[in-house]
């Protein structure tokens, strides 16, 4: 299963040497067809705040974000939950025994071995920000220790015996690591052989926003201009067979967008076969330019060279995209966009623009919007997708999805 997420800070709840498998371990779940536009009626409701992340452990969905209470779809009592909870994928029943007390927001989740889940975020400051929990009871796994210092954990990817950790931290345990680390998935011990370091954070310390991995490649995006001193403006590919930065560079994200967004990449996801990935961005309208502000763009994972260009670009015309999920049949994108196919719009619908409020799907080959248009209340936007065999989970800060009430969590079933 694959989880994609990107963290946009919320001011308050009111405003809301690793062993690698031979098959893709972190790429998107393949789905032969586009999912239904009619959400299932069983997903629970998150009653305040925002949902930032999902993970699937067995048949249990773990949900992370910044919230205080949830309620099952069938009704009943409001259940207090401190930024994380779990529910059954098929019935929607909230797990009563899983109620960890996290004192800060959750930004990233990843399924762990032996019915456990990794949780990253801004909790437990100044030293935690990363824990591994038993799904059965929410207790920490005592054998795992990888406290992050100096910042938050905003992205997690497990690949075999390795857990890749991204954020804006400066140290994991006793090991200095700037924004990116590889730790042992069982113990949390930092891998001394993996030292790729993001640099030059564009008016701030380097930060990894999103990651995805498949076989021998780790794709990262974020607030950086270099990886290990090599020019990689906001996006890079790491060769996991060598532990070094791959011969893959694009200048697509070198141009500046609006001054408010010195770094504007956000979510990314790999295709199920790992051959390509899609990056989504914020940044402001880019009418009449070649800038990739407020866009989704496809890149080929195994391309080589110093001037790699996107295979296609789809512009919203001035609205942010934060999350993306690639299934083979579709590229799902979410944010607070009003349109897709809008290269000539600047907070307007330009020629050819199609209305896709808050959520949409793009053809993976042509880069054009598909007919799928369930709509959602826009708000801040979609912050998390999780693709599973039975459908597409959506996490956000709003309560209307597919013209129905689904507070902050919903799922479109596979067809």
TrEMBL record:
The organism that produces this protein has a lineage beginning with: Bacteria, Bacillati, Actinomycetota, Actinomycetes, Streptosporangiales
Name the domain of life.
Bacteria
Its protein name is Delta-60 repeat domain-containing protein
Q: Where is the signal peptide?
A: 1-27
ATP-binding keyword on record: no
Pfam family of the protein (one): DUF5122
Gene3D superfamilies reported for this sequence: 2.80.10.50
Which SUPFAM superfamilies does this UniProt record tie to the protein?
Quinoprotein alcohol dehydrogenase-like
Q: Which terms are listed as keywords in the entry?
A: Signal
Q: Which InterPro entries match?
A: Delta_60_rpt, Quinoprotein_ADH-like_sf
């Amino acid at each position: 299963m694959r989880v994609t997420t990107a963290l946009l800070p919320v001011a308050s709840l009111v405003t809301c040497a690793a062993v690698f498998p031979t098959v893709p371990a972190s790429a998107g779940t393949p789905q032969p067809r586009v999912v239904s536009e009619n959400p299932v009626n069983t997903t629970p409701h998150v009653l305040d705040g925002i949902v930032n992340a999902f993970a699937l452990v067995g048949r249990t969905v773990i949900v992370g974000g910044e919230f205080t209470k949830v309620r099952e779809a069938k009704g009943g009592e409001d259940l207090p939950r401190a930024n994380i909870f779990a529910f059954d994928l098929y019935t929607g029943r909230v797990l009563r025994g899983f109620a960890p007390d996290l004192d800060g927001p959750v930004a990233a989740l990843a399924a762990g071995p032996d019915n456990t889940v990794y949780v990253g975020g801004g909790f437990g400051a100044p030293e935690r920000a990363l824990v591994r929990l038993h799904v059965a009871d929410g207790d920490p796994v005592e054998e795992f220790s990888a406290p992050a210092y100096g910042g938050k954990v905003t992205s997690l990817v497990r690949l075999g015996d390795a857990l890749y950790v991204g954020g804006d931290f400066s140290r994991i345990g006793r090991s200095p690591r700037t924004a990116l680390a590889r730790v042992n998935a069982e113990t949390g011990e930092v891998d001394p052989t993996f030292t790729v370091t993001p640099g030059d954070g564009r008016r701030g310390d380097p930060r990894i926003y999103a990651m995805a991995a498949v076989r021998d490649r780790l794709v990262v995006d974020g607030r950086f201009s270099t990886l290990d001193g090599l020019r990689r403006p906001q996006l890079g590919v790491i060769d996991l067979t060598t532990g070094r930065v791959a011969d893959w560079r694009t200048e697509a994200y070198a141009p500046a967008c609006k001054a408010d967004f010195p770094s504007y990449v956000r979510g990314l996801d790999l295709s199920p076969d790992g051959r390509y990935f899609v990056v989504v961005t914020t940044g402001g309208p880019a009418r009449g330019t070649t800038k990739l502000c407020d866009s989704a763009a496809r890149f080929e994972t195994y391309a080589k060279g110093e001037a790699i260009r996107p295979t296609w670009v789809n512009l919203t015309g001035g609205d942010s995209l934060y999350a993306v999920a690639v299934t083979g049949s579709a590229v799902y994108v979410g944010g607070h966009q009003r349109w897709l196919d809008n290269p000539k719009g600047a907070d307007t619908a330009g020629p050819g623009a199609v209305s896709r409020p808050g959520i949409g799907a793009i053809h993976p080959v042509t880069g054009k919007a598909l007919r799928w248009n369930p709509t959602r209340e826009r708000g801040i936007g979609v912050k998390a997708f999780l693709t599973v065999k039975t459908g597409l989970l959506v996490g956000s800060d709003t309560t209307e999805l597919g013209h129905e009430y689904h507070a902050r969590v919903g799922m479109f079933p596979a067809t």
